[in-house]
Write a structure and sequence with these properties.
This protein is about 45% helix and about 15% strand. It is built from seven helices and five strands. The longest helix is centred in the C-terminal third of the chain and has 21 residues.
Length: about 190
């Protein structure tokens, strides 16, 4: 579903439901002896609003660890083969991400932008293309008002495909960026999970 369709589907009812979800998750963290309370109550309190915001937009945020969330963006129309130029659907997705990332619930959060490529061309060229894709996404987010100090980017070339590269659709899925949201800066040299 195109990002514009997802955004137009946002309604006050969905916003209210997202708020209720945030409240329920935060409430679970305070239950004495509850598994969430014993495990990491601050993690739930910090992550719940972020998860709710992006879920309400129709994205699929995935909590990976305390204060680390992967945000998957649409991939089948993100980049042309061998190109790091952002396609219009990707720009619309990034507009929505930037609006939320620059909002009060996400203050204090950082973002690692990870670029990927299909296997067309040499591995060295694909690594450079994936790095350029990540850098272009970061630049686009800065142009939308995101503080550059909250962003990092890296490329992983063709090493982490989502689908087979034997078919055009699979290659399109593999030409993507992933966004990893984390509370506070990543330690020096740290990267998001592979």
């Amino acid at each position: 579903m195109p990002p514009a369709t997802r955004l137009s589907g946002f309604s006050p009812v969905r916003g209210l439901l997202a708020g209720v979800l945030v409240g329920m998750l935060a409430g679970c963290a305070s239950l004495p002896g509850g598994p969430v309370a014993d495990a990491a109550p601050q993690h739930v309190a910090d992550d719940a609003p972020v998860l709710a915001v992006f879920s309400a937009l129709g994205y699929y945020p995935a909590p990976l660890a305390p204060n680390l969330i992967r945000l998957d963006l649409p991939t089948n129309d993100s980049f042309a083969s061998g190109s790091s130029e952002l396609q219009a659907p990707m720009q619309r997705s990034l507009d929505a991400v930037a609006a939320q990332f620059n909002s009060p619930p996400l203050r204090g959060w950082q973002m690692l932008v990870v670029g990927h490529a299909d296997d067309r061309g040499s591995a060295a060229d694909n690594l450079l293309t994936s790095q350029a894709r990540a850098a272009n996404v970061a630049r686009y987010l800065v142009a939308q008002g995101t503080d550059a100090g909250r962003l990092q980017s890296e490329g992983r070339g063709e090493t982490e495909p989502l689908a087979t590269n034997d078919q055009r659709y699979g290659r399109a899925l593999n030409r993507r960026v992933e966004l990893f949201l984390h509370r506070g800066p990543l330690p020096a040299g740290a990267t998001a999970p592979r």
